[in-house]
Protein backbone atom coordinates (compact mmCIF):
# COMPACT_ATOMS: atom_id res chain seq x y z
CA UNK A 1 0.00 0.00 0.00
CA UNK A 2 2.67 2.52 1.08
CA UNK A 3 4.92 1.53 -1.84
CA UNK A 4 2.18 2.20 -4.38
CA UNK A 5 1.74 5.48 -6.23
CA UNK A 6 -1.67 6.14 -4.67
CA UNK A 7 -0.45 5.24 -1.15
CA UNK A 8 2.47 7.63 -1.31
CA UNK A 9 0.25 10.29 -2.79
CA UNK A 10 -2.12 9.84 0.17
CA UNK A 11 0.70 10.32 2.69
CA UNK A 12 2.18 13.33 0.89
CA UNK A 13 -1.22 14.99 0.58
CA UNK A 14 -1.89 14.54 4.31
CA UNK A 15 1.50 16.00 5.20
CA UNK A 16 1.16 18.98 2.86
CA UNK A 17 -2.36 19.81 4.04
CA UNK A 18 -1.16 19.62 7.66
CA UNK A 19 1.70 21.99 6.83
CA UNK A 20 -0.77 24.39 5.24
CA UNK A 21 -2.98 24.16 8.34
CA UNK A 22 0.02 24.91 10.58
CA UNK A 23 0.66 28.04 8.56
CA UNK A 24 -2.94 29.03 9.19
CA UNK A 25 -2.80 27.92 12.84
CA UNK A 26 -0.24 30.51 14.01
CA UNK A 27 -2.13 33.63 12.87
CA UNK A 28 -5.40 32.02 14.00
CA UNK A 29 -4.12 31.62 17.56
CA UNK A 30 -2.80 35.20 17.51
CA UNK A 31 -6.20 36.40 16.35
CA UNK A 32 -7.91 34.38 19.08
CA UNK A 33 -5.65 36.00 21.72
CA UNK A 34 -6.46 39.46 20.39
CA UNK A 35 -10.20 38.75 20.46
CA UNK A 36 -9.86 37.32 23.97
CA UNK A 37 -8.16 40.48 25.26
CA UNK A 38 -10.59 42.78 23.45
CA UNK A 39 -13.47 40.82 24.95
CA UNK A 40 -12.10 41.38 28.44
CA UNK A 41 -11.66 45.07 27.70
CA UNK A 42 -15.28 45.22 26.58
CA UNK A 43 -16.55 43.48 29.72
CA UNK A 44 -14.36 45.69 31.88
CA UNK A 45 -15.84 48.78 30.19
CA UNK A 46 -19.37 47.50 30.80
CA UNK A 47 -18.50 46.86 34.46
CA UNK A 48 -17.12 50.38 34.80
CA UNK A 49 -20.42 51.85 33.58
CA UNK A 50 -22.05 50.71 36.86
CA UNK A 51 -19.69 52.87 38.85
CA UNK A 52 -20.09 55.80 36.47
CA UNK A 53 -23.83 55.56 36.92
CA UNK A 54 -23.51 55.35 40.73
CA UNK A 55 -20.44 56.84 42.36
CA UNK A 56 -20.76 54.64 45.40
CA UNK A 57 -20.98 50.83 45.16
CA UNK A 58 -20.17 48.37 47.90
CA UNK A 59 -17.03 46.21 47.88
CA UNK A 60 -18.89 42.97 47.19
CA UNK A 61 -20.50 44.36 44.02
CA UNK A 62 -17.17 45.77 42.84
CA UNK A 63 -15.51 42.40 43.39
CA UNK A 64 -18.30 40.63 41.48
CA UNK A 65 -18.01 43.06 38.59
CA UNK A 66 -14.23 42.46 38.34
CA UNK A 67 -14.65 38.67 38.51
CA UNK A 68 -17.27 38.78 35.75
CA UNK A 69 -14.92 40.91 33.62
CA UNK A 70 -11.96 38.57 34.41
CA UNK A 71 -9.67 41.44 35.42
CA UNK A 72 -8.09 42.86 38.61
CA UNK A 73 -8.62 46.55 37.92
CA UNK A 74 -10.02 48.89 35.31
CA UNK A 75 -8.60 52.29 34.39
CA UNK A 76 -10.61 54.58 32.10
CA UNK A 77 -9.26 57.80 30.64
CA UNK A 78 -11.96 60.36 29.89
CA UNK A 79 -11.37 64.03 29.14
CA UNK A 80 -7.61 63.67 29.60
CA UNK A 81 -8.18 62.44 33.18
CA UNK A 82 -7.04 58.93 34.10
CA UNK A 83 -9.41 57.34 36.58
CA UNK A 84 -9.11 54.02 38.41
CA UNK A 85 -12.69 52.90 38.12
CA UNK A 86 -12.55 49.41 39.63
CA UNK A 87 -9.75 47.71 41.50
CA UNK A 88 -8.89 44.67 43.58
CA UNK A 89 -5.70 43.28 45.12
CA UNK A 90 -3.26 41.74 42.56
CA UNK A 91 -1.31 38.57 43.47
CA UNK A 92 1.90 39.92 41.85
CA UNK A 93 3.19 42.98 40.01
CA UNK A 94 2.44 43.61 36.34
CA UNK A 95 4.93 41.68 34.18
CA UNK A 96 4.36 43.30 30.78
CA UNK A 97 2.05 45.79 29.07
CA UNK A 98 0.31 45.19 25.73
CA UNK A 99 -1.12 48.09 23.71
CA UNK A 100 -3.70 46.77 21.23
CA UNK A 101 -4.43 50.13 19.65
CA UNK A 102 -1.66 50.17 17.04
CA UNK A 103 -0.26 46.64 17.22
CA UNK A 104 0.95 45.21 13.88
CA UNK A 105 0.00 41.66 12.75
CA UNK A 106 3.59 40.49 13.28
CA UNK A 107 3.62 41.89 16.83
CA UNK A 108 0.32 40.17 17.62
CA UNK A 109 1.65 36.82 16.26
CA UNK A 110 4.91 37.03 18.24
CA UNK A 111 3.10 38.04 21.47
CA UNK A 112 0.65 35.17 20.99
CA UNK A 113 3.42 32.60 20.50
CA UNK A 114 5.30 33.85 23.57
CA UNK A 115 2.20 33.53 25.69
CA UNK A 116 1.46 30.04 24.30
CA UNK A 117 4.91 28.65 25.14
CA UNK A 118 5.23 30.37 28.55
CA UNK A 119 3.61 28.12 31.21
CA UNK A 120 4.14 30.56 34.12
CA UNK A 121 1.04 32.56 35.19
CA UNK A 122 1.74 36.30 35.01
CA UNK A 123 -0.08 39.60 35.44
CA UNK A 124 -0.30 41.68 32.28
CA UNK A 125 -1.64 45.14 31.52
CA UNK A 126 -3.78 45.52 28.40
CA UNK A 127 -4.55 48.89 26.79
CA UNK A 128 -7.21 49.44 24.16
CA UNK A 129 -9.78 51.82 22.73
CA UNK A 130 -13.14 52.00 24.56
CA UNK A 131 -16.22 50.93 22.63
CA UNK A 132 -18.23 53.63 20.89
CA UNK A 133 -15.62 56.29 21.81
CA UNK A 134 -16.59 56.15 25.49
CA UNK A 135 -13.29 57.72 26.50
CA UNK A 136 -9.74 58.01 25.25
CA UNK A 137 -8.53 54.59 26.37
CA UNK A 138 -9.31 51.73 28.69
CA UNK A 139 -6.72 49.79 30.61
CA UNK A 140 -7.08 46.53 32.55
CA UNK A 141 -4.82 44.19 34.51
CA UNK A 142 -5.44 40.47 34.22
CA UNK A 143 -3.99 37.00 34.82
CA UNK A 144 -2.47 35.08 31.84
CA UNK A 145 -3.34 31.59 33.12
CA UNK A 146 -6.97 31.58 31.84
CA UNK A 147 -5.77 33.22 28.59
CA UNK A 148 -3.17 30.48 27.98
CA UNK A 149 -5.66 27.70 28.78
CA UNK A 150 -8.18 29.22 26.36
CA UNK A 151 -5.48 29.50 23.67
CA UNK A 152 -4.45 25.84 24.18
CA UNK A 153 -8.06 24.71 24.01
CA UNK A 154 -8.62 26.74 20.84
CA UNK A 155 -5.38 25.40 19.31
CA UNK A 156 -6.31 21.78 20.00
CA UNK A 157 -9.67 22.26 18.37
CA UNK A 158 -8.00 23.85 15.33
CA UNK A 159 -5.48 21.00 15.10
CA UNK A 160 -8.21 18.38 15.36
CA UNK A 161 -10.23 20.11 12.66
CA UNK A 162 -7.09 20.39 10.49
CA UNK A 163 -6.39 16.68 10.88
CA UNK A 164 -9.96 15.82 9.87
CA UNK A 165 -9.74 18.11 6.83
CA UNK A 166 -6.32 16.70 5.88
CA UNK A 167 -7.45 13.09 6.07
CA UNK A 168 -10.69 13.78 4.18
CA UNK A 169 -8.86 15.76 1.48
CA UNK A 170 -6.15 13.12 1.16
CA UNK A 171 -8.73 10.33 0.89
CA UNK A 172 -10.64 12.14 -1.86
CA UNK A 173 -7.41 12.83 -3.74
CA UNK A 174 -6.42 9.19 -3.20
CA UNK A 175 -9.62 8.07 -4.92
CA UNK A 176 -9.12 10.61 -7.71
CA UNK A 177 -5.54 9.45 -8.32
CA UNK A 178 -6.61 5.82 -8.48
CA UNK A 179 -9.36 6.60 -10.97
CA UNK A 180 -7.50 9.06 -13.21
CA UNK A 181 -3.87 7.88 -12.94
CA UNK A 182 -3.32 4.50 -11.29
CA UNK A 183 -5.96 2.56 -13.23
CA UNK A 184 -4.86 3.93 -16.65
CA UNK A 185 -1.22 3.19 -15.77
CA UNK A 186 -2.11 -0.36 -14.72
CA UNK A 187 -4.01 -0.75 -17.98
CA UNK A 188 -0.92 0.32 -19.95
CA UNK A 189 1.28 -2.05 -17.91
CA UNK A 190 -1.16 -4.91 -18.52
CA UNK A 191 -1.19 -4.16 -22.23
CA UNK A 192 2.62 -4.11 -22.33
CA UNK A 193 2.72 -7.51 -20.63
CA UNK A 194 0.18 -8.90 -23.07
CA UNK A 195 2.16 -7.48 -26.01
CA UNK A 196 5.43 -8.90 -24.65
CA UNK A 197 3.86 -12.37 -24.63
CA UNK A 198 3.31 -12.23 -28.42
CA UNK A 199 4.98 -9.17 -30.00
CA UNK A 200 4.43 -10.50 -33.53
CA UNK A 201 0.65 -10.27 -33.08
CA UNK A 202 -0.40 -6.88 -34.44
CA UNK A 203 -3.75 -7.15 -32.66
CA UNK A 204 -1.99 -6.65 -29.32
CA UNK A 205 -0.66 -3.22 -30.19
CA UNK A 206 -2.05 -0.68 -27.72
CA UNK A 207 -4.95 1.55 -28.75
CA UNK A 208 -4.58 4.96 -27.01
CA UNK A 209 -7.66 5.79 -24.94
CA UNK A 210 -6.48 7.75 -21.88
CA UNK A 211 -8.23 11.02 -21.14
CA UNK A 212 -5.23 12.58 -19.40
CA UNK A 213 -3.08 14.31 -22.00
CA UNK A 214 0.29 13.12 -20.66
CA UNK A 215 -0.87 9.51 -20.41
CA UNK A 216 -2.31 9.65 -23.91
CA UNK A 217 1.00 10.96 -25.24
CA UNK A 218 2.75 8.05 -23.51
CA UNK A 219 0.26 5.59 -25.04
CA UNK A 220 0.77 7.06 -28.51
CA UNK A 221 4.56 6.83 -28.12
CA UNK A 222 4.17 3.22 -26.93
CA UNK A 223 1.93 2.45 -29.90
CA UNK A 224 4.55 3.78 -32.30
CA UNK A 225 7.27 1.75 -30.58
CA UNK A 226 5.21 -1.45 -30.62
CA UNK A 227 4.26 -0.92 -34.26
CA UNK A 228 7.91 -0.51 -35.28
CA UNK A 229 8.95 -3.51 -33.18
CA UNK A 230 6.25 -5.72 -34.68
CA UNK A 231 7.28 -4.63 -38.17
CA UNK A 232 10.96 -5.32 -37.35
CA UNK A 233 10.13 -8.78 -36.00
CA UNK A 234 8.14 -9.65 -39.10
CA UNK A 235 10.97 -8.41 -41.26
CA UNK A 236 13.43 -10.47 -39.23
CA UNK A 237 11.27 -13.53 -39.78
CA UNK A 238 11.18 -12.85 -43.51
CA UNK A 239 14.96 -12.41 -43.50
CA UNK A 240 15.37 -15.73 -41.72
CA UNK A 241 13.18 -17.42 -44.32
CA UNK A 242 15.08 -15.65 -47.08
CA UNK A 243 18.37 -16.80 -45.54
CA UNK A 244 17.20 -20.42 -45.67
CA UNK A 245 16.14 -20.04 -49.27
CA UNK A 246 19.43 -18.35 -50.21
CA UNK A 247 21.36 -21.17 -48.53
CA UNK A 248 19.51 -23.78 -50.58
CA UNK A 249 19.96 -21.83 -53.80
CA UNK A 250 23.63 -21.22 -53.00
CA UNK A 251 24.17 -24.94 -52.53
CA UNK A 252 22.91 -25.77 -56.01
CA UNK A 253 24.51 -22.67 -57.55
CA UNK A 254 27.86 -23.64 -56.09
CA UNK A 255 27.68 -27.01 -57.81
CA UNK A 256 26.81 -25.37 -61.13
CA UNK A 257 29.65 -22.82 -60.79
CA UNK A 258 32.10 -25.53 -59.82
CA UNK A 259 31.29 -27.30 -63.07
CA UNK A 260 31.67 -24.03 -65.00
CA UNK A 261 35.02 -23.53 -63.30
CA UNK A 262 36.24 -26.79 -64.82
CA UNK A 263 35.35 -25.63 -68.33
CA UNK A 264 37.43 -22.46 -67.96
CA UNK A 265 40.58 -24.55 -68.07
CA UNK A 266 39.80 -25.39 -71.70
CA UNK A 267 38.89 -21.81 -72.51
CA UNK A 268 42.29 -20.63 -71.28
CA UNK A 269 43.91 -22.98 -73.83
CA UNK A 270 42.21 -21.21 -76.77
CA UNK A 271 44.46 -19.36 -79.24
CA UNK A 272 41.86 -16.67 -79.93
CA UNK A 273 43.26 -13.27 -78.73
CA UNK A 274 39.89 -12.05 -77.50
CA UNK A 275 39.32 -15.27 -75.56
CA UNK A 276 42.80 -15.05 -74.05
CA UNK A 277 42.09 -11.49 -72.90
CA UNK A 278 38.69 -12.24 -71.36
CA UNK A 279 39.37 -15.72 -69.99
CA UNK A 280 41.16 -14.52 -66.78
CA UNK A 281 38.29 -12.14 -66.05
CA UNK A 282 35.82 -15.00 -66.47
CA UNK A 283 37.86 -17.26 -64.23
CA UNK A 284 38.10 -14.59 -61.50
CA UNK A 285 34.37 -13.92 -61.65
CA UNK A 286 33.44 -17.59 -61.36
CA UNK A 287 35.92 -18.03 -58.50
CA UNK A 288 34.41 -15.12 -56.61
CA UNK A 289 30.92 -16.47 -57.14
CA UNK A 290 31.96 -19.89 -55.80
CA UNK A 291 33.55 -18.28 -52.73
CA UNK A 292 30.41 -16.25 -52.09
CA UNK A 293 28.21 -19.36 -52.27
CA UNK A 294 30.51 -21.22 -49.89
CA UNK A 295 30.47 -18.33 -47.42
CA UNK A 296 26.67 -18.28 -47.51
CA UNK A 297 26.50 -22.01 -46.86
CA UNK A 298 29.13 -21.88 -44.13
CA UNK A 299 27.37 -19.25 -42.04
CA UNK A 300 23.73 -19.49 -43.14
CA UNK A 301 22.81 -16.28 -41.33
CA UNK A 302 22.55 -12.51 -41.86
CA UNK A 303 26.10 -11.81 -40.63
CA UNK A 304 29.09 -11.81 -42.96
CA UNK A 305 32.11 -14.05 -42.21
CA UNK A 306 35.15 -12.55 -40.50
CA UNK A 307 37.47 -11.06 -43.15
CA UNK A 308 40.77 -12.77 -43.90
CA UNK A 309 43.19 -9.84 -43.97
CA UNK A 310 46.05 -10.01 -46.42
CA UNK A 311 48.27 -7.59 -48.32
CA UNK A 312 46.15 -6.42 -51.27
CA UNK A 313 47.43 -4.37 -54.25
CA UNK A 314 44.58 -1.88 -54.43
CA UNK A 315 45.24 -0.65 -57.98
CA UNK A 316 44.79 -4.18 -59.42
CA UNK A 317 41.61 -4.73 -57.42
CA UNK A 318 40.12 -1.42 -58.59
CA UNK A 319 41.10 -2.23 -62.18
CA UNK A 320 39.20 -5.55 -61.98
CA UNK A 321 36.11 -3.79 -60.66
CA UNK A 322 36.21 -1.11 -63.36
CA UNK A 323 36.79 -3.63 -66.16
CA UNK A 324 33.76 -5.68 -65.07
CA UNK A 325 31.57 -2.58 -65.02
CA UNK A 326 32.81 -1.43 -68.43
CA UNK A 327 31.66 -4.73 -69.88
CA UNK A 328 28.22 -4.22 -68.29
CA UNK A 329 27.99 -0.63 -69.61
CA UNK A 330 28.12 -1.62 -73.28
CA UNK A 331 27.75 1.29 -75.70
CA UNK A 332 26.40 3.75 -73.13
CA UNK A 333 28.31 7.04 -72.83
CA UNK A 334 29.79 6.41 -69.40
CA UNK A 335 33.48 6.79 -68.57
CA UNK A 336 35.44 5.15 -65.76
CA UNK A 337 38.58 6.59 -64.19
CA UNK A 338 41.00 5.42 -61.50
CA UNK A 339 43.33 7.46 -59.34
CA UNK A 340 45.03 4.82 -57.21
CA UNK A 341 48.81 4.74 -56.70
CA UNK A 342 50.29 1.59 -58.25
CA UNK A 343 52.43 1.00 -55.15
CA UNK A 344 49.55 1.30 -52.67
CA UNK A 345 48.99 -1.94 -50.78
CA UNK A 346 46.32 -2.15 -48.08
CA UNK A 347 45.46 -4.68 -45.40
CA UNK A 348 42.05 -6.15 -46.31
CA UNK A 349 40.09 -9.16 -47.46
CA UNK A 350 40.39 -8.90 -51.24
CA UNK A 351 37.12 -10.74 -51.96
CA UNK A 352 35.06 -8.66 -49.53
CA UNK A 353 36.64 -5.37 -50.63
CA UNK A 354 35.93 -6.31 -54.26
CA UNK A 355 32.26 -6.83 -53.34
CA UNK A 356 32.13 -3.44 -51.61
CA UNK A 357 33.65 -1.52 -54.53
CA UNK A 358 31.60 -3.49 -57.04
CA UNK A 359 28.38 -2.63 -55.18
CA UNK A 360 29.23 1.07 -55.03
CA UNK A 361 30.28 1.32 -58.69
CA UNK A 362 27.31 -0.76 -59.88
CA UNK A 363 24.88 1.49 -57.98
CA UNK A 364 26.50 4.58 -59.52
CA UNK A 365 26.37 3.06 -63.03
CA UNK A 366 22.70 2.13 -62.71
CA UNK A 367 21.80 5.59 -61.36
CA UNK A 368 23.56 7.37 -64.23
CA UNK A 369 22.15 5.11 -66.91
CA UNK A 370 18.63 5.63 -65.48
CA UNK A 371 18.93 9.36 -66.29
CA UNK A 372 19.81 8.72 -69.96
CA UNK A 373 22.64 11.27 -69.71
CA UNK A 374 26.41 10.73 -70.03
CA UNK A 375 28.37 10.43 -66.80
CA UNK A 376 31.59 9.52 -65.07
CA UNK A 377 32.59 7.26 -62.20
CA UNK A 378 35.91 7.64 -60.43
CA UNK A 379 37.71 5.66 -57.72
CA UNK A 380 40.57 7.35 -55.93
CA UNK A 381 42.60 6.29 -52.92
CA UNK A 382 45.19 7.76 -50.57
CA UNK A 383 47.04 6.79 -47.44
CA UNK A 384 46.54 9.04 -44.40
CA UNK A 385 48.36 8.90 -41.09
CA UNK A 386 46.24 6.15 -39.53
CA UNK A 387 43.81 5.24 -42.33
CA UNK A 388 43.50 4.30 -45.95
CA UNK A 389 40.84 6.40 -47.68
CA UNK A 390 39.01 5.17 -50.77
CA UNK A 391 36.44 7.42 -52.47
CA UNK A 392 33.93 6.42 -55.12
CA UNK A 393 32.65 9.50 -56.95
CA UNK A 394 29.94 9.69 -59.62
CA UNK A 395 28.13 12.40 -61.59
CA UNK A 396 24.69 10.82 -61.13
CA UNK A 397 21.47 12.51 -59.95
CA UNK A 398 22.21 12.08 -56.24
CA UNK A 399 20.29 10.17 -53.60
CA UNK A 400 16.71 11.11 -52.65
CA UNK A 401 16.02 12.16 -49.06
CA UNK A 402 14.11 8.96 -48.25
CA UNK A 403 17.03 6.79 -49.38
CA UNK A 404 19.48 8.85 -47.30
CA UNK A 405 17.38 8.33 -44.16
CA UNK A 406 17.82 4.52 -44.20
CA UNK A 407 20.84 4.34 -46.48
CA UNK A 408 22.68 1.40 -44.89
CA UNK A 409 19.63 -0.57 -43.67
CA UNK A 410 18.65 -3.77 -45.46
CA UNK A 411 15.51 -3.52 -47.63
CA UNK A 412 15.08 0.15 -46.69
CA UNK A 413 17.91 2.09 -48.29
CA UNK A 414 17.23 1.32 -51.94
CA UNK A 415 17.51 4.42 -54.13
CA UNK A 416 16.57 2.72 -57.41
CA UNK A 417 13.05 1.57 -58.21
CA UNK A 418 12.96 -2.21 -58.09
CA UNK A 419 16.20 -2.43 -56.06
CA UNK A 420 16.36 -4.62 -52.96
CA UNK A 421 18.22 -2.14 -50.80
CA UNK A 422 20.76 -4.82 -49.84
CA UNK A 423 23.88 -3.61 -51.69
CA UNK A 424 24.84 -0.73 -49.40
CA UNK A 425 23.81 -2.65 -46.28
CA UNK A 426 26.13 -5.50 -47.26
CA UNK A 427 28.94 -3.11 -48.16
CA UNK A 428 28.68 -1.25 -44.83
CA UNK A 429 28.70 -4.52 -42.88
CA UNK A 430 31.77 -5.79 -44.73
CA UNK A 431 33.69 -2.56 -44.03
CA UNK A 432 32.69 -2.68 -40.35
CA UNK A 433 34.15 -6.19 -40.27
CA UNK A 434 37.45 -4.60 -41.31
CA UNK A 435 37.22 -2.16 -38.39
CA UNK A 436 36.47 0.71 -40.77
CA UNK A 437 33.47 2.74 -41.87
CA UNK A 438 31.52 3.38 -45.05
CA UNK A 439 29.91 6.83 -45.17
CA UNK A 440 28.12 9.06 -47.65
CA UNK A 441 30.37 12.09 -47.87
CA UNK A 442 28.02 14.20 -49.98
CA UNK A 443 25.19 13.86 -52.49
CA UNK A 444 23.19 16.18 -54.68
CA UNK A 445 22.27 16.99 -58.29
CA UNK A 446 25.97 17.13 -59.16
CA UNK A 447 26.57 13.56 -57.99
CA UNK A 448 27.50 11.52 -54.92
CA UNK A 449 30.69 10.62 -53.06
CA UNK A 450 31.06 7.54 -50.85
CA UNK A 451 34.09 7.25 -48.59
CA UNK A 452 35.65 4.02 -47.29
CA UNK A 453 37.91 4.49 -44.28
CA UNK A 454 40.05 1.48 -43.32
CA UNK A 455 42.49 1.43 -40.38
CA UNK A 456 46.03 1.09 -41.67
CA UNK A 457 47.50 -1.01 -38.83
CA UNK A 458 50.47 -3.18 -39.73
CA UNK A 459 50.78 -4.85 -43.14
Automatic annotation (TrEMBL):
Keyword field contains ATP-binding: yes
Annotated GO MF terms: ATP binding; phosphorelay sensor kinase activity
Domain Histidine kinase: 248-458
InterPro entries, A to Z: HATPase_C_sf, HATPase_dom, His_kinase_dom, HisK_dim/P_dom, HisK_dim/P_sf, Sig_transdc_His_kin-like_C
Coiled coil stretches, renumbered: 215-242
Top EC group: transferase
Protein name: histidine kinase
Catalytic activity from the UniProt record: ATP + protein L-histidine = ADP + protein N-phospho-L-histidine
Species classification: Bacteria, Pseudomonadati, Pseudomonadota, Alphaproteobacteria, Rhodobacterales
Key words, A-Z: ATP-binding, Coiled coil, Kinase, Membrane, Nucleotide-binding, Phosphoprotein, Transferase, Transmembrane, Transmembrane helix, Two-component regulatory system
SUPFAM superfamilies tied to this protein: ATPase domain of HSP90 chaperone/DNA topoisomerase II/histidine kinase, Homodimeric domain of signal transducing histidine kinase
Residue intervals passing through the bilayer: 6-26, 158-181
A Pfam short name: HATPase_c
EC number: 2.7.13.3
Entries under CDD domains matching the protein: HATPase
Amino acid sequence: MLNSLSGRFLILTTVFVMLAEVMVFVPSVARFRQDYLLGHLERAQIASLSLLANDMIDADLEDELLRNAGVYNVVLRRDEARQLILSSPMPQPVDVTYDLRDASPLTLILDGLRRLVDPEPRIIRVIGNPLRDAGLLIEVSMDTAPLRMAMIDYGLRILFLSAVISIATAFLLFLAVRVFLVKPIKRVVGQMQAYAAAPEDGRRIIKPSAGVRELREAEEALKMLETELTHALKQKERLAQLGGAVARVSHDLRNILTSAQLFTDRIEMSEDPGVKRLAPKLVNSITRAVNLCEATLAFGRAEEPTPVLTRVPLAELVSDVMESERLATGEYDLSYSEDVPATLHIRADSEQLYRVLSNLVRNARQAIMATGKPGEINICAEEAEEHWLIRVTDTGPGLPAKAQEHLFKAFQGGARKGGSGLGLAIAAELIRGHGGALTLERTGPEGSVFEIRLPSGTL
